[in-house]
Amino acid sequence: MCRAMLDVHILIHPATPRDWVTQCLDSVYEAADRAGFPVDVHQLPAVIGHIGQGRAQGYALGVQPYVTCVDDDDYVLPQAFAQMRDALEAGASAVCTPEQTLQNGYIRPGHTRHHLIAYRRGDIIDHTQWPCCGDVAQMNTIGPDAVDLAEPAYVHRLYMDSKARVMRRIRVAELELARG
Fold first, then answer.
1. How many C-beta atoms lie closer than 10 Å to residue 71's C-beta?
2. pTM listed for this prediction
3. Is 171's pLDDT higher than 70?
């Protein structure tokens, strides 16, 4: 019997180029269809100027035991959720997906433990306290039994006017606090 179940939310920002949002949504729904276990996808409007409030709303949606998010300007590869299955079924505290970065038309290896991390629902922090760095603070909660997957399945789009990057440059103290 499959126990791996996941809620994924996407905050849609009105300034994100429509073709990027379409690519994001199409990729998430395709990966959900290929997962081999229930993946419920939730789209909701971003809270302008406060990423954490949007994240809190997104993580509150659904009832699945694991939660994650995808940024509306990024996208996932078709195996993104399917490759999480064994670790989710085993009860890992978090399942971390390596990423690739897309910048100026070039795909390069990206970070681990940065995007597409499935957390146990009960381990989600109060994101409302973090206007822009809750995702960074959340990463600090990853326990020793987390699973780091080998295959990249998230594509992080890098560009200069990213709303989150702009906010983090302005809120340096929050970023330092989130990093611990």
1. 23
2. 0.92
3. yes
